[in-house]
Write a structure and sequence with these properties.
It contains 11 helices and 14 strands. By secondary structure, the chain is an alpha/beta fold.
Length: about 350
């Protein structure tokens, strides 16, 4: 019977198990947004994952949403990430880079005064962003003009080129959690007209253009996509999230991606619905589930064929040897939220392994 420890081909990458590490922003790259030796140690510690998906990484300058998150838009950033990929490969692991544009979730205090861009001039409400001046409300973004959008696609394409130079095994396009591509997808944040607004086909146009451009660089069998149709984080909503993701699942078959990474729920519990069943029914490729899966629930999801693999977030954050712990049915370390976004190795590289 297929279970979490049955090997699987994730596109062109052979994985020894189906326990993946979800992308987790940890803000350890410093103000220059350059990956470093501390990050290399962190990912190498977790190299027993079937696949590591590295954290959200800026495709272009001027789009910081977390202050000290990494980028992949300069030679220095490529060199920093090369430390990480070399360490992961030396430890026997496989690693994709999540490439990302923050859109309206960025802030001028993080980006030399630049106003954020978005599909429509609608600010994120009722949430705040961490800045060097403490938590601040989000500002009103500027709506992108139609003729600026090819430049966004080009930024993702160049980031994919840089990711290949940095030694990654592939890339995951971040189409989730209220960042730019998700902002275009959902009608609560995309209220524009023209070729990128209105119908589902138009709202998905930017995402599909990005997937095509990135696949030209990598080959589609080394490109994944993350979606979060229900998640209201970053003040997101859609009038028909289940209908939208069901339609997307059907359309995405044409791209022959390495995988589709589906976040099944809402961080805040505001929006509800079953998105896993309709995506499984309509998407013919490899489906990865994410958000709150216990090891037992993940095992059942894979055994039943509901999912092909499961990506664990905070469980992998606190348990660098998560596959070994799951296989041994051992207790898991509890994560410490106070160190999720702090500066040093505490709560980052010092979680004990089972042997310790």
């Amino acid at each position: 019977m297929t279970d979490l420890f049955t090997p699987i081909d994730i596109g062109a990458v052979h994985a020894p198990n189906r326990i993946l590490m979800a992308p987790l922003t940890r803000a350890r790259a410093g103000e220059a947004h350059i990956a470093n030796a501390m990050m290399a140690e962190h990912y190498a510690q977790r190299a027993s994952a079937g696949l590591l998906i590295a954290e959200a990484t800026m495709v272009t300058a001027g789009n910081s949403a977390f202050w000290k998150e990494p980028g992949i838009h300069s030679d220095e950033q490529v060199a920093g990430w090369k430390l990480v990929t070399d360490a992961v490969h030396a430890a026997g692991g496989r690693i994709f880079l999540q490439i990302w544009h923050g859109g309206r979730a960025t802030h001028p205090l993080l980006n030399d005064g630049q106003q954020p861009v978005a599909p429509s001039a609608l600010a994120i409400a009722n949430e705040e962003v961490h800045t060097p001046q403490g938590k601040q409300p989000y500002v009103l973004p500027r709506a992108l003009s139609d003729d600026e959008i090819p430049g966004i696609v080009a930024g993702f394409r160049q980031a994919a080129v840089y990711a290949k130079a940095a030694g990654f095994d592939g890339v995951e396009v971040h189409g989730a959690n209220g960042y730019l591509l998700d902002q275009f997808l959902r009608d609560g944040s995309n209220q524009r007209t023209g070729p990128y607004g209105g119908s589902r086909e138009n709202r998905a146009r930017l995402l599909f253009d990005v997937l095509s451009a990135v696949s030209e660089v990598w080959g589609s069998d080394r490109v994944g996509l993350r979606l979060s149709p229900l998640n209201s984080f970053n003040d997101m909503r859609d009038s028909d999230p289940v209908g939208l993701v069901t339609w997307l699942a059907e359309q995405l078959n044409a791209f022959k991606l390495a995988y589709l990474h589906l976040m099944r729920a809402d961080f805040y519990g505001k929006q509800h619905g079953d998105v896993v069943k309709p995506v499984r029914a309509h998407y013919k490729g490899l489906l990865i589930g994410n958000m709150g899966y216990t090891p037992d629930e993940a095992t059942l999801a894979v055994q039943s064929g509901q999912l092909d693999a499961v990506a664990f977030g905070t469980a992998f954050l606190a348990n660098p040897d998560l596959p070994a712990r799951i296989q041994a049915k051992a207790p898991l370390n509890a994560p410490n939220p106070a160190t999720f976004y702090s500066a040093g190795p505490e709560g980052y590289n010092d979680y004990p392994t089972l042997g310790a």
